[in-house]
Amino acid sequence: MEIIKDIMNDTIKIIDEALDKYTNCRNKYQQTIFESMRYSLFNGGKRLRPTIAVKTFELFSDDIQKILPYAAAIEMIHTYSLIHDDLPAMDDDNFRRGKPTNHVVYGEALAILSGDGLLNLSFETMLKDMLYNSESQESSHMKARAIYEVSKYAGVEGMIGGQVVDLFGSHENMDSQTLELMYEKKTAALFQAAAVVGAILGGASDEDIEILREFALYLGLSFQIQDDILDAEEDAKIHKLTHLSFYDIKKSKEDVDIYTNKAFELLDKLSNKDTKFLKELTNLLVHREI
Amino acid sequence: MEIIKDIMNDTIKIIDEALDKYTNCRNKYQQTIFESMRYSLFNGGKRLRPTIAVKTFELFSDDIQKILPYAAAIEMIHTYSLIHDDLPAMDDDNFRRGKPTNHVVYGEALAILSGDGLLNLSFETMLKDMLYNSESQESSHMKARAIYEVSKYAGVEGMIGGQVVDLFGSHENMDSQTLELMYEKKTAALFQAAAVVGAILGGASDEDIEILREFALYLGLSFQIQDDILDAEEDAKIHKLTHLSFYDIKKSKEDVDIYTNKAFELLDKLSNKDTKFLKELTNLLVHREI
User: Fold this and answer.
1) How many domains does chain A have?
2) Cβ A116–B121 below 8 Å, yes or no?
3) B151: nearest CB among A89, A124, A185
4) DSSP of A156-191, one letter per residue?
5) What ipTM is given for this predicted complex?
6) What is the CATH number of the domain that holds B48?
7) Range of the domain at B136
8) How far is A137 from chain B (nearest CA, A)?
9) Taking burial as the number of CB atoms within 10 A of a residue's CB, which of A42, A121, A230, B175 is the most buried?
10) Cβ contact (<8 Å) for B117 and A156?
11) What's this model's pTM, rounded to 2 decimal places?
12) How far from the centroid of its chain's Cα atoms is residue B255's Cα?
């Protein structure tokens, strides 16, 4: 477990350097919004999604620089979704990771614009790389595929769609199937974007891409249910609909194991068998205690 | 003037059909957000930006279907910016074009997500077209250039940057140069995105692309100052910083004429001289009385 944490910390450092580069403010009039965007981007996040992107990429290719714009872009999308989620009109959270949320520090208006700015910057970053950093037409085409995957997983058919289900979800109108759909969209979607983008840009076969797409789905689902278990043990948010609204702790823990095992089985189907890191990452995420 | 209005109405119809197609809800769980996005998209907008995209495109190419995903995408971006602008934390407007604003009808949370959804859908729509509708690698490359231009004009260096300046602008910290920068970013940027995308996808030379980029800047600036003049004559919003905070009506009207003339001069420099529609459109926009 210590070794994987060291590897993760190395990866986080590389991702943070990339994020720093892509959010470098060039003009005075943008200073405020860059400060606000960076406040939330560099707020002690675990960089799970970019780590998944980097590590799936590394199953197929060594040149890690190639995945960084996309890994960073997915983290920008994750961060914008948190800024908007925390707003008073949404979850109304004043703290995240022990620090005041974006709108508490910068005000609601700038928080809204900073979220918009990060979503937009995510696409700018990827498109710029596709346009100016592709060594061949094949490479450019792979990047176009990757960016389109990100856009779908982030959008109304993906993460945003899941947030809408979350917003209107209640015991009256939601069953366990709808909850799973919500988790798939709200949480697993960006995990899937990360894994698929890593695979596509690494040059994986279509078969391996689809295996990793499914792997990330089960990783995302077990991650989210584990989150519910930890929340329930620590501080029951009764108003919030979670896996534990439908199942007890025992069944929930069993479900985490079932999904984790599915994720492991999928990794074993890959043409590249060097999946040690992804398996340990999966273990770390779903058996974490914080 | 009647003829140009007929042409505009024909164009609006084509753009509305495209927008309708791209916002076709496929799954039950997305029904609410699609309803909300469409409420604001189909709210009697004049479709200026997509019309500019279509008409600059038509200077160089006839196959209008090719520009529609991009024209529609720019209108989605314009619409999302209005939804977020109207929020209580921003301009706090309850009505737009005589109808209740998005958050009044759907609530603030869904209004925020609908804005996010439209911005994301804008990129999805363009990327899908690039990936699946390009007849050659050259066409695909032109589309990549176009999408990147949209992302820059919509982002923190463009429209969002202008909104931030607007947010924190006051008489104490803003001079007339800063106001012009704000107008360039907040209003002219999407006009420029439209004109540049039309030119690129139409197959214009780099020289013509740059001429149309500058044309749209002056069109946007004169449009915005004319807006200020109409606002001032109708209902002075004293708290809001406008061109009339620095200049009187007479000078403001002169500035509209100066910028309009610059726009006309630029059109005369184009290799294609068939600029009658764009000139009449410019006249219509800057000499409008509503």
Assistant:
1) 1
2) no
3) A124
4) TTTHHHHHHHHHH--TTT--HHHHHHHHIIIIIHHH
5) 0.96
6) 1.10.600.10
7) 2-286
8) 7
9) A121
10) yes
11) 0.96
12) 21
